[in-house]
Design a protein that fits this description.
412 residues, alpha/beta, VC0802-like, eight-stranded mixed β-sheet, 20 strands, globular, binds adenosine-5'-diphosphate, binds aspartic acid, binds magnesium ion
């Protein structure tokens, strides 16, 4: 008998009718003889609604209390799904993260799972029950409720699958697999039948929200068989693979983008040792992640220093940098929140030159100015003005030969 972990995202459990449909899907697998563990997200829009409530009370509510609040979203759906399963004659039990000992560190809002005790789940499975677990939440060693960061239910599912040595972890969502880029931005996007974990990790960390980054990290570490599928239509979805090389490796496997960053420039600082450290040290001390960095030397021997931070941390970063800039007698500070980062990703890039120049040529042809560039051996990222995002993604998708022939999203 095999064990499946299935995760259903917010849209998939967004209404009572959809929860009933999920219950029927789960029961059908149970009837085929599989042991079933189901992880659910909050109903779509619920986590945002709860965040708005918190903001209505205070702009700086403590992270601990925000987690207590956000965790309620998933508690609603586990109860409703278990009721739905019972109603169609399928024994089920719901559990919060804490009840199945999803132990995390104490970094509220982006906690990391450190341990899972699968014993309680195994006991229920042995009694023939479907186990329904709240995604996105855990507890720290003092019993405080924590959450795993936005999209964290994916990580709950993969971590559960690893802990229980499940035969497959299936992520059910509102698209029928992983595409060459977000199909909502580029209608020509094509579903990939398979993608390597390395490429999926890169796409996720560059903004493709179809899987949370940490879920892909977890899957890679424990080699969890992982598949992304649609809740609304049947199909094979996309399999995440772990083989090092594939027979026929596409040059570019996908294009990711992010609107979640902002840019800060400190102008006219002395070109001398220690300046980068002074500017970025304070930002790092505030636990703000800096992504891209560039430095331009001016004719007068000073330098301009530009870097990107998450948009949610922009105001805080600007305050910190304003202070340092005054100390360094900088000429000026400029900020821009309307930027977007676009990245082309592919392990095939390792053995091919010329990808960057094609990318720059396509953007030039469309009249899109590149503000920043960064590269690694399997990706090239550029920062452009946000209003050009969709145009840039579609033009690059087509130029790199990723377009589906008829735009219908047939598997690669
Ligand atoms: P869920 O609520 O099920 O977790 P998410 O909204 O988190 O769903 O993730 C699914 C969404 O990810 C899709 O609706 C799609 O817009 C977006 N997406 C971004 N990049 C991709 C991609 N490369 N392939 C498929 N979907 C993508
Ligand atoms: N409900 C959480 C969120 O909206 C977690 C998830 O959906 O995976 O981010
Ligand atoms: Mg998600």
């Amino acid at each position: 008998m095999s064990l499946l972990v299935q995760k259903f995202g917010g849209t998939s459990v967004g209404t009572v009718e959809r929860i009933l449909a999920v219950a029927r899907r789960v029961k059908a697998e149970r009837d085929r003889g599989h042991d079933m563990v189901v992880v659910v997200s909050a109903m779509s829009g619920e986590t945002n609604r709860l965040l708005e409530l918190a903001r209505g009370i205070s702009a700086d509510a403590t992270a601990r209390e925000v987690d207590v609040l956000l965790a309620t979203g998933e508690q609603v759906t586990i109860a409703l799904l278990s009721m739905a399963l019972e109603a169609i004659g399928c024994p089920a039990r719901s559990y919060t993260g804490g009840q199945v000992h999803i132990l995390t560190d104490n970094v509220h809002g982006k906690a990391r799972i450190v341990d899972i005790d699968g014993e309680r789940v195994r006991q229920d499975l042995a009694l023939g029950r479907v186990v329904v677990i709240a995604g996105f939440q855990g507890v720290d060693e003092n019993g405080n409720i924590t959450t795993l960061g936005r999209g964290g239910s994916d990580t709950t599912a993969v971590a559960m699958a690893a802990a229980l040595k499940a035969d497959e972890c299936q992520i059910y969502t509102d698209v029928d697999g992983v595409y060459t880029t977000d199909p909502r931005v580029c209608p020509q996007a094509r579903r990939l039948a398979r993608i390597t974990a390395e490429e999926m990790l890169e796409l996720a960390s560059l903004g493709a929200k179809v899987l949370q980054i940490r879920s892909v990290e977890f899957a890679g570490k424990y080699r969890v068989p992982l598949r992304v599928l649609s809740s609304f239509e049947d199909g094979p979805g996309t399999l995440i693979t772990y083989e090092e090389t594939q027979m026929e490796q596409a040059l570019i496997s996908g294009i990711a983008f992010s609107r979640d960053e902002a840019k800060l420039t400190v102008k006219g600082v002395p070109d001398q040792p220690g300046v980068a450290y002074r500017i970025l040290g304070g930002v790092a001390d505030a636990a703000i992640n800096v992504d891209m960095i560039i430095q331009n030397i001016g004719a007068d021997g000073t330098t301009d220093f530009t870097f990107t931070v998450p948009r949610t941390d922009y105001r805080k970063a600007r305050e910190i940098v304003t202070k340092t800039a005054t100390e360094l007698h900088a000429r000026d500070i400029q900020g821009d929140e309307r930027i977007a980062k676009i990245s082309v990703v592919g392990v095939g890039m390792r053995s091919h030159a010329g990808i960057a120049s094609t990318m720059f040529q396509v953007l030039a042809r469309e009249g899109i100015n590149i503000q920043m560039i960064s590269t690694s051996e399997i990706k090239i990222s550029v920062v452009v003005e946000e209003k050009y995002l969709e145009l840039a993604v579609r033009a690059l998708h087509s130029a790199f030969g990723l377009d589906a022939e008829n735009g219908s999203g047939a598997a690669a």
